Amino acid sequence: MEWENTPESANVEDRRGASSSPASAGFGGSGGLGIGTVLVVLAISYFTGINPSLLLGGAQIVEGSSQGQTRYSQPVARAPAPTAEDRTTSLVRHVLGETEAVWKDVLPAQTGVQYVDATMVLYSGATQAGCGGAQTAMGPFYCPEDKKIYLDTSFFRDMQVKYGGGGDFAYAYVIAHEVGHHVQDLLGILAKTDAARQGASRTQANAISVRVELMADCLAGVWAANANKKWQNINQDDITRALATASAIGDDRLQTAARGYAVPDSFTHGSSVMRQKWLNVGLQSGQVDSCDTGLGAGG
After folding, report:
1. pLDDT of residue 165
2. Model's pTM, two decimal places?
């Protein structure tokens, strides 16, 4: 993927120099995930083998819109911050800039909804989010409360080491997936699914989460298709790598690797096949209305 000559976003907030240490780590208190949710998540992880970071990240998205703030201690001094122009920071700025340029055209044209930029927060270890505590173990996530995407850039290294993924377009896919959640927020879909989860059974809530995540995969594909029309900067090898990454982080594959078997009712992000399918749907169509996973899409 060629990205060096594409637009660069100014909406990147780099907190990697001094990360805040949450007093309650987002577990209870007056914000973040409630202690009951965390205990349920950890129990599900123990019995099913789901990566708890994926469960926590998914729970953070859907619960964040109805939670308040978490109290934090004073910032903790950390190692010197990476230089502002390191390659990872530059990649993030350019990919986010591409998503802004694409969605400002595509979203109103296809849905009648104006696109409003999200902010990308880069951090190390832990930081404060509008939805509560952001921590490395949670993976990247979008917070509807403050319209920000939170990313510990060490996740890109984990993609290579733990998930066998990696490559610039695979990293771009991760960013575009989180921007996809922002698009869902602008379309009113996150508020609708948050309400639907209230009072739902665990199996039903998981199924809603899967549909939310698969739609975000599809919207990442919509972005990529339209970005390639603008800049012709994505090739077949890039797409192959992104599809391989989508497969590597499928719930069934993660569960099987951890426990030797998969439990479909406990899926929160979708199987490898489904994640590949919906990313490819967006790539092939370039249309928001093709991304209806049962939640509704388009205007």
Report:
1. 62
2. 0.78
